[in-house]
């Protein structure tokens, strides 16, 4: 079964006869030690403090039985890793025809399922708060004030805490009504009203950051930590 903070997404699951319910990742209404496995994909990077991100991992561990495993995916600061660009950067032209995939070893799904939309992006800077804080490709500086930068789609990341554009497709048009956006100039007020842009908060992770957070919990051990197409990933085992 699945859970999500969004009632509308949970309703879609119900329409497809999947078991899902609405809840907060910081307080999942499932008794402790009752799950063989848990998967957290593209969730933890939405929490705005290190304390809340750690609390989310701790809650995930609480659900697991001893010996149970959890898979965690978060977006990575390093979109160019070991001299290889992620598909995220390679799709700079914004092609919406290709389905980017993440192979988690358990399931294979379009990357777009994990992202806000196929044109939404994220960015990052490396204020790591780790003792051994010298990582390649992670030398960007945090914002000097309280305002968060808005990321430019399909570009490298420059801030670890940022806002990612969410393009609401179809905008305010009525159900069943088609809209030809080509009649409006790009960036025009009319086009913005038809396809409004919202912003979502992201904290994208630097190399070692997710693993270090997991290792700080004495109730789990890290089985595996790896990089997968612009994501940092960890497999945990409940002790």
Automatic annotation (TrEMBL):
Gene3D superfamilies named among the record's database cross-references: Vaccinia Virus protein VP39 (3.40.50.150)
InterPro entries, A to Z: AlkB_tRNA_MeTrf/Diox (IPR051422), Methyltransf_11 (IPR013216), SAM-dependent_MTases_sf (IPR029063)
Keyword Aminoacyl-tRNA synthetase: no
Compositional bias per record (Polar residues), positions renumbered to this chain: 115-125
GO cellular component terms, A-Z: cytoplasm; nucleus
Cell cycle is among the record's keywords: no
Keywords: Methyltransferase, Transferase
Name of one Pfam family that matches: Methyltransf_11
A GO BP entry: tRNA wobble uridine modification
Bias-annotated ranges (Basic and acidic residues): 88-101, 126-144
Occurrences of domain Methyltransferase type (ranges): 2-72
Location of the region described as Disordered in the Swiss-Prot/TrEMBL record: 88-151
GO molecular function list: S-adenosylmethionine-dependent methyltransferase activity; tRNA (5-carboxymethyluridine(34)-5-O)-methyltransferase activity; tRNA binding
Annotated protein name in UniProt: ALKB8 protein
Source organism (scientific name): Anhinga rufa (African darter)
Chain's gene name: Alkbh8
């Amino acid at each position: 079964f699945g859970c999500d903070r969004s009632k509308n997404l949970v309703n879609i699951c119900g329409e497809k006869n999947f078991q899902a319910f609405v809840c907060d990742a910081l307080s999942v209404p499932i008794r402790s030690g009752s799950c063989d496995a848990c998967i957290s994909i593209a969730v933890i990077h939405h929490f705005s403090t290190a304390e809340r991100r750690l609390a989310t991992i701790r809650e995930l561990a609480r659900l697991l039985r001893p010996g149970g495993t959890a898979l965690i995916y978060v977006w990575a600061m390093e979109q160019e890793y070991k001299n290889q660009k992620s598909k995220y950067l390679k799709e700079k032209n914004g092609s919406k025809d290709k389905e980017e995939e993440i192979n988690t070893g358990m399931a294979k799904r379009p990357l777009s399922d994990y992202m806000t939309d196929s044109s939404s992006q994220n960015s990052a800077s490396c204020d790591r708060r780790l003792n051994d804080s010298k990582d390649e490709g992670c030398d960007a500086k945090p914002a000097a004030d309280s305002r968060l930068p808005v990321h430019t789609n399909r570009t490298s990341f420059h801030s670890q805490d940022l806002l990612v554009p969410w393009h609401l497709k179809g905008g305010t048009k009525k159900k069943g009504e088609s809209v030809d956006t080509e009649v409006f100039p790009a960036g025009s007020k009319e086009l913005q009203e038809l396809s409004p842009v919202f912003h979502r908060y992201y904290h994208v992770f630097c190399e070692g950051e997710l693993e270090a957070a997991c290792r700080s919990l004495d109730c789990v051990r890290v089985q595996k930590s790896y990089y997968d197409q612009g994501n940092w990933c960890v497999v945990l085992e409940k002790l």
